[in-house]
Design brief:
eight-stranded parallel β-sheet, alpha/beta
């Protein structure tokens, strides 16, 4: 290996890398090889001073400190670096890493040393090479090698540095590639034998490094050397910092053909073992592993001794996981010697054989597709060309809303999601990059691989530069000729992506089977034999074309596609087949049921022929066996082109079968002929109360089967409810149905209770004790309450009903319940679980207080947390640490059963609680880490970037000042203003695209029928409310002269503007926005004319409620155990109140204030906020401080004039109430204040003359700092 006198620069000597590769390959088959330990740990032992780091050369360098830049020591302390290398080689290392972990312009920018990066790398490699040559000369039988160390840099291409802006990146893929090319060339020119991309916490950074290495080898004339790749699993989740699993990480870097793949850093050997097992079994390369010397202690130091580490590494070798092993943080030459001595006699790992037929792609998780695996659904809705809703959101910049469409695709079963941004109004490259960056911040979406779809290859490149996983490119073809095809294919391969190849060539699109196959085979041969593509990474799209168009030449298109599938599978080994399924039925747009059937029949046959995947709406398919037989026959004829009249037959079927006729009338009473157990079950599942008392009594009288009333509950009633629970859990029943079932159950139980009480008293009389407890029939007892200060309980009621359906006894304490009463009720009722609910922000603090009180009282009862403002993060950060027993956030009603059942399961409870505790610990770490990364403007700077509005002729004088109370409000007039979407959300009914919102939800295949039934029930109750005047509406509007002073709004007594009668205090945005975002930092005062402008301005206010009468009517429903009606009434009161607020605000704009007299908006347009002006509410995003309501109530005299009051936590009572402050300026807009810093909170407290700790309590969710 020595003695070469190259005629080329050392890095470009032909064959040098190949000789190294052959030696490594031979040796790794014979024995385990060894790499060195930590450079940094050894450098620390020298305790170099700042002057020693600088040396003479950098004595006057402008950076105030260079100490800590270990890479610099290769230039200023080369003898020390050589000595460290020498010690590791003498300890048994076969190879040593160069002192270049931070050897890029990106990392060296911290020290202002970008200009010497090439020199650092070249000299570091030369130093290492010199020592290797020295030791090799002493032991020629064991050559030593230099491994060029390529670190991850101090930036991440996959992770936003700003929590506020998920799409932001502080480094680009191209910047990383440029930096890595310079580093790699320096290392190779210095004599590095091997390159190692290491400590990978963000796989996209690693892909940039591997891209750069390939450029250096293939374009810059350097001899190809072996490459090692080593990732970092950051914790016991088994994932990298950027979220990938170990297997997904392997998949993302495998394209670079590394000699070895493995893990290093972050974990000690003990913790790393299971993750290294996963790496070993999933890669056919050799492996490398170099763990830390245990985990760091409190001071960040590593205590694991060499002997202990040698002992901990031995199992890796014995399990057959190792080809190359060494040490990372905290390890020394003594550790390497101990590892060497422990494993040197153990046989090396034998790499497994990987199935060559598998297409393997990855997002955060891996997806594998073989010929025998189930069909792969590629989600199609994130396509601006194919989805108008998605296109609208992207064009309008609503990327976060567009994420919901991607999420729905994954939830509906898409294993891969297709992203396409080809739209004339878009900059495709920018849109693709931004949306993929947004996806990267959403693990539930990012877990699946991405198909980057564009007819513009520049857009494809932009997408590939944003995805850390192994993507699929859609698509390339021979359309522009072979040269263009090969050029694009090479680039795709360099990124490591799989590729879709369309059946196009220079002549055009292929439509017949033979032409399709001819193009596919030509493409396959080029990709496999010339470009070096893995055949399983090739996906052919032989063009699914539209059939049944009325044109005869189109009729055989499905047959041609199915036939070419057979030919591709028979002749092009391991290649995959895909296609855009919706194209098939394009001529029947609008006939969705028909299209679903056509797609299902087509896929049934195409999959049999070898089709592996398809771009299809995963929720837009029906089961082949469920297709009506007459429709199935027509579709079969259409697919196989067996009937020239099939187009007309398809159209006729669609027109005839707009809906399915049912035999409801016949079936309605047929169930009454069943035995009593089946009748009870049927009534529970169908929610029929008509006969429930009669049937329950019949069962009770069957003393032979049910000797006691309790036996009826435990037997047929619970059996029926079990069916309800199963159907609900599997998504075959919906919440309104479940609540109706609960109503039936409650009626049955209510009938039995007197008999059970009679039995209990008889037992008492006979034995003097109660030998049975009716509660013993329940699975457990749950005490539930809306916490003090909050009057909202719809969500809590739903949870209570669902738990009741699952045989839990629910003690509902109602609303506004203080901590001591909750705790006492839990004690008195021997509760197994406590449920805390809240809607408004102050409820969060009250929940924290309840947790503290439970801890102080020594309680051990688990707590569930739920409600609109609650979150898993808040529970983990603020509530769980205050209580030593489990405190668990519950997202919705359906999850409550899972949580409670696990908490009460003796076998699972401990593990379940530990899992939650671990998850919450991770969330807390994420939260506190996020606080460090966020950037905020000072209040002063944010104020300097306030919105600058024009005031000339932009203020409007209302027709009166003071308050006006509405009387005799006709609820009929509000119905047209109702927004029904939140109503369905209350009942947890959510349609799927394209039937998501009202009224489209009625067309949804899954929830449509139930939504329509619920809507009809709601309208029936609405008419009852109006007819019997069950609810009363009250409203007030108010106007006053105002001007802004800084961030506050002064309210004047009269037009003289001399006496200030109150102030609305404002909060200003502080979270830093994108540098390219011109948007100001808003505060509500920006929308009022400044006092200094001498422009008179005005402000409005409103408070409304249609909640008067709710409590009284609910009490009536409660007596008849009618939870369904309770929830329905509260939901309708809420909707009517919001409708009244819309109506009153419309009156303000068009009449009382009159600044929009000519406004003509539909209800839909009003709900879309297309009117001039805004009506933000205190306690909501534009002014999150609830205490501002006190000013409103005082100035408007709301309580006296309307009866709408404030609780001590400033919730409005009745619960169905809305209040708002009204602004008229044309440029006023809604915004969210978001997180704010302490300088603003202190300033705000001083302006309001309130104690800082009180303000911090009210603004707790908005604080960008910790108060504990």
């Amino acid at each position: 290996m020595n003695g070469e006198v190259p005629k080329f620069p050392v890095g470009k000597v032909p064959g040098r890398g190949a000789r190294t590769l052959q030696y490594l390959r031979d040796t790794c088959r014979e024995r385990i090889m060894f790499i060195d330990g930590a450079m940094g740990t050894m450098v620390q032992r020298y305790k170099f001073s700042e002057e020693q780091f600088r040396g003479e050369r950098f004595k006057n360098h402008p950076k105030d400190f260079l100490k800590g830049n270990n890479d610099l020591l290769s230039l200023t302390q080369p003898e020390a670096i050589m000595e460290i290398h020498r010690k590791y080689l003498l300890a048994g290392a076969d190879m040593i890493e160069t002192n270049t972990f931070s050897g890029t312009t990106i990392a060296q920018a911290d020290y202002l040393m970008e200009d010497i990066v090439y020199e650092i790398n070249k000299v570091s490699a030369e130093i290492a090479k010199k020592v290797c040559d020295e030791i090799t000369a002493q032991e020629p039988q064991k050559p030593r090698f230099v491994v060029g160390a390529i670190g991850p840099t101090n930036r991440t291409a996959s992770i936003s540095p700003s929590v506020e802006n998920p799409s932001l990146r502080n480094v680009t893929f191209d910047e990383l590639v440029t930096a890595y090319i310079q580093q790699v060339e320096g290392l190779l020119d210095g004599g590095a034998d091997i390159l190692m991309v290491e400590t990978i916490f963000d796989t996209l950074n690693a892909k940039a490094a591997l891209y750069a290495i390939d450029v250096v080898f293939s374009e810059n004339g350097y001899d190809k050397v072996p490459v090692f790749v080593s990732g970092t699993i950051v914790d016991q989740s088994g994932r990298t910092l950027s979220g990938q699993t170990g297997e997904a990480f392997i998949t993302s870097v495998k394209h670079a053909d590394p000699f070895a793949i493995g893990l290093n850093c972050a974990l000690g050997a003990d913790q790393m073992l299971p993750f290294m097992q996963n790496i070993s079994k999933n890669t056919d390369t050799f492996t490398i592993c170099y763990p830390n010397a245990g985990l760091p202690n409190t001071f960040g130091e590593y205590d694991e001794s060499p002997e202990a580490m040698g002992k901990n590494v031995l199992p890796f070798a014995e399990l057959g996981l190792l080809n190359i092993v060494g040490g990372c943080c905290g390890t020394t030459p003594d550790h390497i010697k101990a590892i060497h001595d422990a494993v040197k006699h153990v046989k090396p790992r034998v790499p497994p054989t990987v199935d060559p037929n598998l297409l393997v792609v990855s997002g955060l998780e891996v997806y594998k597709k073989g010929d025998k695996d189930v069909f792969c659904n590629v989600g199609e809705r994130c396509n601006v060309s194919g989805s108008r809703i998605f296109a609208k959101k992207i064009i309008n910049g609503a990327y976060e809303e567009a994420l919901a469409i991607a999420r729905a695709q994954v939830e509906n079963g898409a294993q891969i999601i297709d992203i396409n941004m080809d739209e004339g109004l878009l900059d495709g490259k920018v849109a693709m990059s931004k949306f993929l960056n947004y996806i990267a911040s959403e693990p539930d979406i990012a877990r699946v691989p991405i198909m980057v779809d564009s007819s513009n290859f520049d857009v494809v490149l932009a997408g590939l530069k944003c995805a850390q996983g192994k993507c699929i490119v859609n698509s390339i073809s021979l359309k522009e000729g072979e040269a263009d095809f090969k050029k694009k294919a090479k680039i795709v391969k360099r990124f490591g992506a799989a590729v879709v190849v369309m059946a196009f060539d220079e002549v055009g699109q292929a439509v017949e089977c033979d032409r399709k196959f001819e193009i596919c085979k030509r493409s396959y041969d080029i990709l496999v034999n010339e470009i070096g593509f893995n055949p399983s990474d090739i996906i052919f799209d032989p063009n699914i074309l539209t059939i049944a168009t009325g044109m005869e030449e189109h009729n055989n298109y499905a047959v041609e596609f199915i036939n070419v599938c057979h030919k591709i599978k028979a002749n092009l080994p391991h290649a995959k087949i895909s296609g855009g399924v919706s194209n098939l039925s394009f001529s029947f747009r609008g006939k969705e049921a028909l299209r679903m059937a056509m797609h299902s029949v087509f896929l049934f046959h195409a999959i049999k022929a070898g089709m592996d995947m398809g771009i299809v709406n995963a929720g837009f398919l029906t089961i082949y066996d469920d297709i009506p037989k007459d429709l199935l026959q027509i579709c079969e004829d259409a697919i196989w082109n067996r009937d020239p009249e099939v187009t007309e037959k398809l159209l006729a079927y669609a027109e005839k079968h707009g809906g399915n006729a049912s035999k409801v009338a016949e079936e309605e009473e047929a169930w009454r002929q069943l035995d009593v157990e089946k009748r009870l079950s049927h009534a529970l599942v169908k929610g029929i109360t008509k006969y429930i008392v009669q049937d329950t009594e019949e069962a009770r009288l069957r003393k032979d089967k049910y000797p006691r009333p309790l036996n009826v509950i435990e037997g047929p009633l619970m059996s029926g409810m079990s069916i309800v629970g199963e159907l609900f859990g599997s998504g075959k029943m919906f919440l309104p149905q479940v609540i109706k079932s609960a109503r039936v159950m409650k009626a049955a139980v209510a009938h039995l209770i007197p008999f059970m009480e009679e039995e209990r008293l008889a037992n008492l009389a006979k034995n003097g004790i109660a030998d049975d407890d009716a509660d013993s029939a329940y699975n457990g007892v749950v005490v539930m309450a809306t916490v003090k200060g909050d009057v909202h309980d719809i969500g809590k009621n739903i949870v209570g009903v669902v738990l009741g359906c699952n045989n839990y006894k629910v003690i509902d304490m109602g609303v506004m319940v203080p901590a001591e009463k909750i705790i006492q009720a839990a004690i008195d009722n021997k509760a197994d679980v406590i449920g805390l609910s809240g809607l408004i922000t102050p409820s969060l603090d009250e929940m924290v207080f309840v947790a503290k009180e439970l801890e102080r009282r020594g309680m051990k009862i688990p707590v569930m947390i739920g409600g609109a403002t609650t979150s898993k993060m808040h529970t983990a950060v603020k509530i769980a640490p205050r209580y030593s027993s489990p405190a668990i956030h519950v997202l919705d009603a359906s999850r409550s059963v899972v949580v409670v059942s696990n908490l009460l399961d003796e076998k699972n409870r401990k593990d379940f609680a530990l899992d939650i505790a671990d998850e919450y610990e991770d969330l807390r770490a994420e939260h506190y880490e996020g606080l460090k990364d966020r950037k905020y403007l000072s209040l002063e700077k944010a104020q300097s970037r306030a919105a600058k509005l024009t005031w000339a002729q932009k203020t409007y004088k209302p027709k009166f000042l003071g308050s006006l109370v509405y009387t005799n409000i006709d609820l009929n007039g509000l119905i047209s203003h109702i927004d029904w979407n939140p109503f369905f959300q209350t009942w947890q009914l959510r349609g799927k695209y394209p039937n998501r919102g009202y009224p489209k939800i009625f067309k949804d295949e899954t929830v449509g029928a139930e939504a329509k039934k619920l809507f009809d029930d709601a309208n029936e109750m609405l008419q009852d409310i109006i007819k019997h005047k069950i609810l009363t509406a009250k409203a007030i509007v108010w106007f006053a002269p105002v001007n802004s002073v800084g961030d506050d709004i002064e309210i004047y007594k009269d037009e003289s503007r001399t006496e200030v009668v109150g102030k609305f205090y404002g909060l200003r945005q502080q979270a830093e926005k994108d540098s390219d975002n011109p948007e100001p930092y808003f505060c509500l005062s920006d929308f009022i004319a400044p006092k200094a402008s001498n422009v008179p301005d005005y402000i409005g206010g409103l408070a409304v409620s249609v909640g008067f009468g709710v409590d009284e009517k609910c009490a009536e429903f409660q007596k008849s155990h009618d939870d369904f009606s309770i929830i329905m009434l509260k939901a309708l009161a809420d909707r009517l109140t919001e409708a009244l607020a819309e109506k009153v605000h419309e009156d303000i704009r068009k009449d009382h204030w009159g600044y929009a007299e000519g406004e003509k908006l539909s209800t839909e347009e009003m709900l879309q906020v297309k009117y001039q002006g805004i009506r933000p509410a205190p306690g909501y995003p534009s002014q999150p401080d609830h205490t501002e309501k006190e000013t409103m109530w005082k100035l408007m005299d709301v309580a006296n004039l309307t009866g709408i009051t404030l609780t001590e936590s400033l919730a409005m009572s009745p619960a169905a109430a809305v209040s708002a402050v009204c602004f008229s300026h044309p440029e006023s807009q809604y915004f969210a204040v978001g997180k704010i810093e302490k300088d603003q909170v202190v300033n705000y407290a001083q302006r309001k003359n309130m104690p800082l700790e009180v303000v911090e309590r009210w603004l707790a969710p908005n604080l960008a700092y910790d108060t504990d």
